[in-house]
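Narrative summary of target 7.
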Amino acid sequence: FTDLTERLAKESNGAELLSQCLMNFFTPLIELINSYRGDVIKFSGDALTIYFQAVDDTMSPKYNCVVPPHGTYGLPDLGPMATSVLRASACCIEIHKRLHMWETGISGVAFCLRIAVGCGNISILQVGGETPPATRVPRHEYLIAGPPLEQISHVESMAKNGETCLSPQAWEYVKDCVIEGRPVEAHPEYHLLLRMDESKYTFPTIKHAAMENDNRMDKQFTLSQLNIIRRYIPSAVYKQIECGTLVYVNEMRNVSVIFINGAGLDVMSSKGAALVQDLVVNVQKACYQHEGTLNKFLIDDKGILFLLVFGLPPLVHTDDPTRSVLACFDMVKIFRRMDLVGKFGVSTGRSYCGVCGSARRMEYSVLGDCVNLAGRLMNSAPPHGIFCDEETMNRSSNELIFHALAPIKVKGRASSIAVFQPVKKDVALEIGLTQERNIRFPWYDHPFAGGSVGLEDMQDSDSLKKNVQRLCGVKTWVGIIKVSEMLGGAFMKDLHKSTMTITNAPATASAPPGSPFHDGGIIVISGDSGMGKVELVEHMVIYAGTKLNALPVFGTMGPRPGDSVRLATELIKTCLSVYRHIDPKSLSPDDFQALQKLAPPELARVLPKLSPALKDSSLREGGTEILDASLEVTMALLPILLKKTAIVLVLQFEYGTSLFPKTLEDQAIFWKVVTRLTELVEREMKQGRSLGHKPLAMVVVSRDAEEGNSAVNFAKERDTYIHLTGLTEENILEYMSSYLNVPEQMVPQVLRQFVTAVTLGNPRHIRETIDQLLESCIQVHVGANKQVKHIECKDIDKINISSWQHTAMVGNTVCLLESLDPLEAAVLKMSTCFTGSFTLPDLAASTCSRWADATHFDFLRLYKAIHQLVESEIIEEIPEAEVTQRRAAGDSTMSMSKKQSQKQAKDSPYGTTQYFQMRNVLIRAVGGAMVLEAQKKSVKRQALIDRALWRELPGRMEELAKKRQAQHIPWYYEQAFRRM
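Modeled conformation, tokenized:
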């Protein structure tokens, strides 16, 4: 298995081929196991845990009272346990005969088997019960534990490939029923199986008796009990089953995988089961807080094992590598608190995510080289240590620091692999106005939009300043035009070339009357991730600080668990930084002591609640109380500050990329804060001037503005609401020339068209696209004077966009696909298989073909899914069928004229059918990469068959009907009549 995964890791569809190999192998294997009445309890990569229950068949109503349960007439009954071990032994021997050295189809690789058998009493555990973010159904894990598994852990190492080894306990039951193999010299108490003692027992008789008395099908769940089964099935898989689209649950995905090994817990002790339950629940909580998935939990020869995956549907984020490492830090605390030893391995890469097994027994799993690597890293990690691979390091955000360790050799890898140990980055001590009188924005230290450190956006404050210069320097961009009107001054690049010093000197400019910066007010900025919200805010704050003498106060939140505490502490700390800026010597450098001095006496009761958060920046507990206390204090401090200076209050909420109940709960908290502070803004606008207060401008930044919120209504009424959409083609050209630092006329036309089609005007996507193209397709020629002479584009039409896995544009597109219902997602994936237009019957051919007992309701569901995608502007309606015909003429092709095309569309049964097409280049590339090659072939094949049937079958059926109506006289009768 290890050799196979290493070889297939080099193939573009290696994980898919691995899945096919395993499916082809597991199908006969599971059939054999089932025929001996075995049950597959767990899949764990290349291993299966199989359970043969000891049942007294003589008590079964199916028992014939003639042939004993072991199947040999005339021999006495062995008893339930001996019969169970006999069936397991016979199954093992037959598996070796039929499947050992099974050819995988990959040259030089064959599956070899070794099997260990133990017996005894087991405990069947149902553990977990926490509810994942994507559903309201608690998630449980079902597993077995006990002496048999402990026996197996010792026995397995004594069996070589092609052998079955029995523990001493199991051997006692079947020593007179089988022929022993070679002796185990080092451990003579263990025994190898050679073959059955066929003078007593044979495969067919054992198998027949096992199936004859099998009553498992009588106990299977019914449809009315789906709510019970659901707790053991991942929510995304259950939805696919409900919608009849299970085939599309198999995908190629970029995921981050965590393997955890736990030691120090005896499951069979009197308190063991309770401790296991406590451990699993706590691990689930830590995993679900970061919106990950617990894919497997098992107890085997390696101890307690967890497999956690970040990036499985529908919990997909662009910052999954960061989330996985942060979750590990939380789980290290759990293991330490429970006095257990945990080791953690984290890897990131492209893997097969789908069902594994056979039609009779399958499990949703993750397969591939990335998964194996996480297991190897886990084995090499020290107690409570976290080891990461290079890809995880490269794709993690600036919240983490990685220390390179010495490369290690691992099983299945010819060369050594790089290993990195993560450390949480210390939170910046200063936010807002610093002691050096600069402005430090919160997003310099916290990620926004799930960006990764690989993006230029997230590297440092200098690159963020360059983004502001380039984007806000696009003179015709509606965003900067609107902001410049409110500020009363045009955008100046010099303000963002270096770190600006904020002084207490009088203002050098004035905002126009009616502007929030002149009279106070609220500005709301919304728009999709990457549209330039942060760049606009940064310009507003810098301009207001340097020109209008308005100082910043910040409060940002998301997308990490417990970020309401961060919002609370930022509001307090930045208020204090403004006061220190105005009067440097008046306050203590200790925030809590400064707060005690500055806050009004009536707030003394709430100050102790803020002390832990101000002293410990990593605190995440008690967020609600801390935030409420912080709001009270902030609303008291701001009027004090407004007596001395104008304030720009910036509130930002970052969703991450998933919207589930937990995230929506954070969203509600944020908008509650906005509502409270809106009351303060409105009060200051009415009474502040009479009290001698300066203007208070509040800027609210969020991907989606909450409809009906008082701040949003305020901004819309006063025309200070800015919703950002994509740049126009004119803007894109100006932005590209600024980013490439070349004149506009030097940007090649083919490059303009490609970037416009892929990015749809999203500024971040434009930057990422150019960065990726510069690595492979764009060559910038520079002259002797260091001036760009020209730009050359090569093979830009052949670029594989889906390989840009580390970019926000690809990550956000995957998240968009995950927001769809299962049937809509299946339709989208099928649509990527057609290079041109397609129809509803083309898609129905793969899911609900009219030739396969489909109903009108099936077509209606499919139509509604297509209609929803059209409304979401993911696919487009084609107003007129663009039917083309290609005729091979050497290497040339010839298309029909428009008139011929229209005539054929009219004559065709599809002429009256609405045509659709997937024209979004980015969605086509990303969605198509998630579809397996076998699925693509199936969709195209079924559509072609459906078209051929629709075109040819009705005519042939008519001919057949005519023939049946005509009287048929057999030939020999006809000849006889002629002779008469």
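The first strand starts at residue 38 and ends at 44.
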